[in-house]
Amino acid sequence: MSQFLDRPIFRLVGQVASERGVRAFVIGGYVRDCLLGRACNDIDIVVEGSGIDFAAAVGQKCGKQAAYFPSFGTAMLKYHGDEIEFVGARKESYRRESRKPIVENGTLEDDQLRRDFTINAMAFSLMPGSFGELVDPFGGVRDLAAGIIRTPLDPDTTYSDDPLRMLRAVRFAAKLSTPEQEFKIVPESMESMRRMAGRLSILSVERITEELTKMMATPRPSMAFRLMDEGCLLECILPELTALKGVETVDGRGHKDNFAHTLAVLDNVAEVSDSVPLRWAALLHDIGKAACKRYDPALGWTFHGHDVVGSKMVPGIFNRLRMSQDEGKFVKKMVWLHMRPISLVDDEVTDSAVRRLLFDAGDDIESLMILCNADITSKNPAKVARIKSNFELVKRKMAVVEEKDRIRNFKNPITGEYVMQVYGIPPCQEIGQLKDMVKEAILDGAIGNNFEEADAFMRLKAPELGLHEK
After folding, report:
1. Hey, what domains does the chain have and what are their CATH numbers?
2. What is the mean pLDDT of residues 53-68?
3. Contacts 24+ apart (CB under 8 A), 249-257
4. What is the pTM for the complete model shown?
């Protein structure tokens, strides 16, 4: 395995280990990714002894200053583009009410026992006499080859001690899967998750959200949400999503499974965009359907208003998960607008409707169109082709209106200061009302988006509000 250890840092670590009479190993994700043929610049070194003292000795030998984190017993060193973290081998025990372990010094074997999964418990020796030898007590190589996520210990123990590992299992399955090989969580682990799902309550919201964000960035994020659902984790984190599951039938008429549809839209977006906020918009775009579902004997199942209801739900979800409020505003806008473009496919649609969409979407119009295209999940090729053709028509209409009226990033030609100057008035509600009249007239196409026409319109409408030029 020495072909994976050709970086200078590994020989330096081996020299220091030999000089200090201790054992040192590279462990965890670097080893796993090497065996999978994936690039990795995050390197974890475990040493039997003080990780901080050992890092200081390595730093002195290579002329680099390590950063020390005494409360965690770790140190970080940057060398030749790699980030190397040093930690002393340890064994851990847990109290039921906390995922914070009680830590004691230990051996490599102790350290491997505390690891989350067999594929993350493998280590390469860095000592000169055994340099490059693989230490794999739990069959991690075998599990990598089989595409298996499995815990070294009984999964109930592993997940009860640190329930974040349940989310990590899901994340690794999604992250490591490829078109050629899908990683699976072993059945006994899935069963354990269902038993231990309630233990998520001891985790901080921030740690849960960090894992969700990493899942969302994987090539096929739907896999993570399906696995969380199968493990009864999703209902503890995003019950609004699990409320979309299932198909109800009345008089022989059913509707599509909105949960399955949502995950299909999420993957469609992921195929064309790396934007995590846009992927969140895909995940939440139909979140209001559970509340808006109605059966009409004449129309069948309807979800009228789910775009508006869903957009109002987004801030609460983002607050609960303590996510970025700026990203939350973007997602709210996407959920609110995602039905609008499809309503513009009629040849006779007015320029006013197009202007209002461009005004409401602003610079996010391209993201909105990606989401709308991703929302096409029909299995009927003719229907898909027709809808996509309609969207191309919408794009052409938007391009024509934008070129003519410059509505995107709209700025009202009439400012409050100008109104106060013309009419000699202090700040008051009439100023906002007059500016709104001008804006609506521009969006309706009654006047052009320029100062001259806006000024003339303002002077025409001002007397209706009791404003007269000074």
Report:
1. 2-140 (3.30.460.10), 147-237 (1.10.110.30), 416-465 (no CATH)
2. 89
3. 250/295, 250/301, 251/297, 253/295, 253/300, 253/301, 254/301, 255/293, 255/300, 255/301
4. 0.87
